[in-house]
Amino acid sequence: MTHPDDSSPFNALPPVVVVLFLAVVIPEIAFFLGSKGVIGGPQAVGWRQVAIQDYGFSGTLMRWMIENGIYPPEHLLRLVTYPFLHGGFSEMLFAAALLLAMGKFVGEVFRPMATLAAFFIPAVCGALVYGLIARDNPWLYGAFPGIYGLIGAFTYLLWLKLGQAGGSQSRAFVLIGFLMGAQLLISLLFGGTLRWVADGTGFLSGFAASFVLRPGGWTKLRMKLLQR
User: Fold this and answer.
1) Which is it for the CA torsion 110, 105, 88, 124, positive or negative?
2) Spatial contact of 61 and 53, defined as CB atoms under 8 Å apart
3) Distances (CA, A) of 218 to 165, 184, 194, 225
4) Phi and psi of 166, rounded to 5°?
5) Interatomic CA distance for residues 9 and 25, integer angstroms
6) What contacts 123, CB < 8 A, 6 or more positions away?
7) What is the rounded distance in angstroms from the CA atom of residue 75 to the CA atom of residue 94?
8) How far apart are CA 39 and CA 27, in angstroms?
9) What gap in Å lies between CA 2 and CA 58, rounded to an integer?
10) Which of 140, 37, 41, 33 is nearest to 89 (CA)?
């Protein structure tokens, strides 16, 4: 006698990836329901814009903090809250799908805290570089800089595996080359912001951080430094 498969699709995912996924999805669900008048009353229609202004990242605000030497905690918090806001439902769906795919690959190798670091370190680095370079540009929001960090970690793992197998390690960069190329092409054809700066920085910082974040990475790095 066979039994129906009632296992959750989330069972195969590392719990930390599920938490990140829910943090990305839940705000967008609230914005969607609010825009349809299901929850929150009339003021719910503007929830998204209010949330972006309160929790999104602003390069202008960052430069103001640097120039004045004032760093209010509520503004520093924006560095880690902006990835959970998106411009629309379809944007969130694409981000959530990439997050699940890349998070599964990375989370199956990295420890939970290292997986979180592979998301948040690139998100913070991406926002800082965006704030310094992309002057007079719109607010930065969306999970993509953090997701590109996970792509950087995935690329590192593939690069490491190809090296151990004696293959061409350049093949590890095919995915990021395709994604960044497509993003730049879209920007050139249809116009756009410099958010690709944050994404590219996220990838580079995710790749670099993986030297330490991978299991045993800090120990191996310290041994190499002591040998010099």
Assistant:
1) positive
2) no
3) 23, 35, 33, 11
4) 80, 15
5) 16
6) 79, 80, 82, 83, 143, 145, 146, 149, 202
7) 27
8) 13
9) 56
10) 33
Q: What is the pLDDT of residue 134?
A: 80
Query: What six digits make up the tokens of 17?
Result: 């990836």
Residue ranges in the chain modelled with pLDDT below 70: 1-11, 186-192, 221-228
Tell me, what's the pLDDT at 189?
60
Distance of alpha carbon 26 from alpha carbon 160, whole angstroms: 35
Q: How many CB atoms lie within 10 A of CB 181?
A: 10
* Amino acid present at 110: F
- H helical segments located in 86-143: 89-107, 112-133
Among residues 115, 141, 137, which one has the least CA distance to residue 13?
115
Q: What is the dihedral of CA 144, 136, 180, 188, to 10 degrees?
A: 130
Tokens encoding 46: 């503007």
What does the alpha-carbon distance between residue 98 and residue 212 come to, in Å, rounded to a whole number?
23
For residue 135, the model assigns a pLDDT of: 74
End-to-end Cα distance, the chain: 64
What are the phi and psi torsion angles at 98 (to 5°)?
-65, -40
Q: In the block, which residue shows the tokens 């593939």?
A: 158
